[in-house]
């Protein structure tokens, strides 16, 4: 028997559908917005994936507008979002999480490859950065950090595309890490391990 998590994974973990859901997250997007956000995807292919997401309940049609004799749909994520809920996540196996995380990482690789294929790239001017840092936080401190981070990001998710705005992808990964052998993780004061050509927030650039 196919579980709801399996059905979700089959529907959502497609490279184009991941980009569609990311484009709609936190905002309402018209069909035209999606076409502009994913210019490398043929329109017929894009419409097919949008229709599949709507049929599967991961996208809602929240408005229909008449534009030059045709009907333009406006899409948004459903109230419950497009991600799995706590119950499905708790019931998922390690193999499920490995598969989902692989899809997540693969989508980042694809986005970064699209960035690198531009005629001109300048990581400093473009604000591109990727790094890893280790934060030593109690549960209370972590909850405070998560709330502060959400408070910074959430209001900006509603920003609509504009001529003075650059679409930027911010990807986050949070997980506990094992302390270095022989060290006291609560007292470690050495600089956190970092990776990447320039300082910046954990994530990559160029959101569709």
Automatic annotation (TrEMBL):
Which chain regions cross the lipid bilayer? none
Biased composition, class Pro residues, residue ranges? 190-202
Q: What SUPFAM superfamilies does the record point to? A: Winged helix' DNA-binding domain
Database matches in Pfam families? HTH_20
Identify the CDD domains for this entry.
HTH_ARSR
What are the boundaries of the region Disordered? 180-208
Show the ranges annotated as biased composition (Low complexity): 180-189
Q: What is this protein called?
A: Helix-turn-helix domain-containing protein
